[in-house]
Amino acid sequence: MLVLAGIVVVHITTIILLLVATIDNAWWITNTVSTDLWGKWVLTGSDWHYTNLNDYPEEFLQAVQATSVLACVFAILALFVFVAQLFTLPKGQRFTFTGVLQLIACLCIMIAASIYTAELHPNDTEGGYGHSYVLAWISFVLTFLLAVTYLVLRKKGE
Question: What mean pLDDT, rounded, does the chain reach?
Fold first, then answer.
């Protein structure tokens, strides 16, 4: 029972990290710019102003946006499927479907962070990756570990 509670806590933590990484505005930061997947915040004087991401290649940006959102959706769906399988799965069976959903979420966030790294800031010398970018990679590791855990985990008897 304690193992299941731990898995659920890690899963919820991973979902929160994925949502923060997708929503928060710190994928690329400089002293005057903070960029997320949806827009750019530019410091002008003492005020921050929101602008569109016109200087990014649209096809790569949309791929990063889509795979980040899909990672969140698959991770949330995997949690609901896991809870449902706790009550419906016969004893001794593996949580395979939950593991596959979590593996898809893992691949989605990996694709998003990889495209962002390779295509959106390959030659930028000013600034660096922000905490949302780091959270995306941490979420990748956690979703991978959860996927492996779900694929190995068997439902035990009472």
Answer: 91
> What's the token pair of residue 112?
């998003």
For residue 39, count other CB atoms closer than 10 A to its CB: 13
Give Cα 142 to chain centroid, integer Å. Answer: 9
Q: How far is CA 87 from the centre of its chain?
A: 27
Q: What is the pLDDT of residues 78-98, one digit of tens each?
A: 999 999 998 888 887 888 999
DSSP string, 48-95: EEEE--TTS-HHHHHHHHHHHHHHHHHHHHHHHHHHHHHHHSPTT-B-
Task: Give Cα separations from 117 to 15, 114, 139, 143 (angstroms).
Answer: 22, 5, 16, 19
The 3-state DSSP class for residue 137 equals helix
CB–CB of 23/136 below 8 Å? no
Q: CA 4, CA 142: separation in Å to the nearest integer? A: 16
Amino acid at 40: K
Name the DSSP class of 157: P
Give this prediction's pTM: 0.90
Contact between 92 and 155 (Cβ < 8 Å):
yes
96-115 vs 58-88: helix axis angle to the nearest 10? 160
